[in-house]
Design a protein that fits this description.
disordered C terminus; mainly beta
C-alpha cells in the first residue's frame, strides 16, 4: 500500500513523484513486511522500486525502527538500502552507521561503515 498527500505523474513516464509518503509492504509467505514514511519520494511504476527522501522513518515487523535522510527500495531484490547516515533502534540498543541494507525476505539488517552501538537505557526520548 502506498499513500501520499500529493502525487505528480507525467504522461509517457514510469515515475511518480510523491510528497508526504506512507508506504506499507505487507508480510506474505517468505517475505517480511515493513512500514515507511518520508517527506518525499518517487516510485518507478514498471519496476516497483521506490526512493524515499527527507525525514525518512521506517519500522520492520519485529519492531526495529530506523531514521535516515534517504533510502531506496529495490522490489526485485527485496532490498532496502542507503549510503546516508542512519540510526536503527531495537529493543536492546540503538545503532548508528554510515548506511545500511535491509534484506526484506530474510528480515536482516546490515549496517555499513563506522557503526556504533548505544544501550537502550542510554537513549533519551524519541528522535
Amino acid at each position: 500500500m502506498l499513500a501520499a498527500d500529493r502525487a505528480e505523474y507525467r504522461s509517457g513516464g514510469d515515475r511518480v513523484l510523491l510528497e508526504e509518503v506512507h508506504l506499507r509492504v505487507a508480510e506474505r509467505e517468505g517475505v517480511s513486511g515493513f512500514e515507511l514514511r518520508s517527506e518525499s519520494g518517487a516510485i518507478d511504476l514498471s519496476a516497483g522500486d521506490f526512493e524515499a527522501t527527507g525525514d525518512v522513518w521506517g519500522r520492520t515487523p519485529d519492531g526495529r525502527e530506523l531514521r535516515t535522510q534517504r533510502l531506496d527500495y529495490r522490489h526485485d531484490a527485496g532490498l532496502v538500502r542507503t549510503d546516508a547516515p542512519v540510526q536503527i533502534r531495537d529493543a536492546i540498543a540503538s545503532y548508528r552507521g554510515a548506511g545500511f541494507e535491509y534484506h526484506v525476505r530474510e528480515a536482516r539488517f546490515r549496517i555499513l561503515g563506522g557503526a556504533s552501538v548505544t544501550s537502550r537505557s542510554g537513549l533519551v526520548g524519541e528522535p
